[in-house]
Amino acid sequence: xxxxxxxxxxxxxxxxxxxxxxxxxxxxxxxxxxxxxxxxxxxxxxxxxxxxxxxxxxxxxxxxxxxxxxxxxxxxxxxxxxxxxxxxxxxxxxxxxxxxxxxxxxxxxxxxxxxxxxxxxxxxxxxxxxxxxxxxxxxxxxxxxxxxxxxxxxxxxxxxxxxxxxxxxxxxxxxxxxxxxxxxxxxxxxxxxxxxxxxxxxxxxxxxxxxxxxxxxxxxxxxxxxxxxxxxxxxxxxxxxxxxxxxxxxxxxxxxxxxxxxxxxxxxxxxxxxxxxxxxxxxxxxxxxxxxxxxxxxxxxxxxxxxxxxxxxxxxxxxxxxxxxxxxxxxxxxxxxxxxxxxxxxxxxxxxxxxxxxxxxxxxxxxxxxxxxxxxxxxxxxxxxxxxxxxxxxxxxxxxxxxxxxxxxxxxxxxxxxxxxxxxxxxxxxxxx
Length: 433
Ligand SMILES: [Fe+2]
Fold this sequence. Notes:
Layout: H1 7-30, H2 40-60, H3 68-72, H4 78-103, E1 110-117, H5 133-136, H6 167-172, H7 177-180, E2 187-194, E3 205-210, H8 221-232, E4 238-241, H9 252-257, E5 268-270, H10 274-278, H11 281-290, E6 294-295, E7 299-305, E8 308-315, H12 326-329, E9 339-344, H13 350-355, E10 360-363, E11 372-373, E12 377-378, E13 392-396, E14 399-403, E15 421-428
Parallel strand pairs: 2-15, 3-4, 4-5, 5-6, 8-9, 9-10, 10-14
Antiparallel strand pairs: 1-2, 3-15, 7-8, 11-12, 13-14
Fe (ii) ion (FE2) is lined by residues 212, 214, 244, 273, 275, 365, 367, 410.
């Protein structure tokens, strides 16, 4: 009877775990953070292919002389050194994240936080609208959608037939996934922030922040209306949209039409996100402007009340590359003056903004991880800084950052331990305790 040894099996398993970890690290930190990713799909397919092929290679060739020393630990091999290095980095990184998740740092600027649930019941029939040819038809280039409107620019992409009742949709709307999926379990956050730099004329300003809608085949189209109703019920003075309006199915007009209900006395302002730039950013901008939503492409506007200035800055870097940041953010007149609220899609720009003295930065992009495991944290974290800015508040020098979970989804219609959100910030002038 041959001697049964679990050692090669155990070493092979550890090798596969390390390969999956490296794939996720490369994909999240590098691939998802690059501004234009024509090569993204190839890297994803190659990485996934390697992770699938590796176990097969280990099983098929485990007795070969070139692989045997690696699996049996007969002698030290460079792969053992690489494995220890990868697992060491993974363990230290995870320990720091777990410590932070357990500690939950206190943010001095938060005066109060009130959160409530506003769940939505999605049904398969909600998606029927995506089968309606009239609804999903692209307008012809050069046509004028409304009187006095600019002609529609040329679309490079045609809408492919939208897969409205896919297997994954049926799966996620059926028990038991339906019960554990938080994709429609909307949370409304109302934060009251104490900001000493806020001009007295803007004391009490209510800013509604919405991000990462990803309009398309993944979420119920009716859910977008539900989100807007919840947001507008908060009676905001100003509305900030931080990008990723569309998904991969080119429903630009439909995505922006879904936002037409948004109205606020100080306007609706937007920056675009990486998914808007992966598709057709000029078309997204066109429809945003048609809907009365003003796009802040690396520029600022000064809102005035009683002679006091509240500066609203929009940063689309790195998707629209910005070399000299000073004109976009504006020169400060005095330290902390004017107050600067920055809208950005990715939190990766926060250190640069902090050096330029931004007071408050609102962003999305990370979706809070979309899937968050207990003590492990987010699985998806598209940031150059890994999971540092996955969600919530962070204080970086003079700058308070808020990274939202967003209300949309991408890739798979599933959220775990990471519900979608609508966020209202009530800005109060006052000292932080
Ligand atoms: Fe997104």
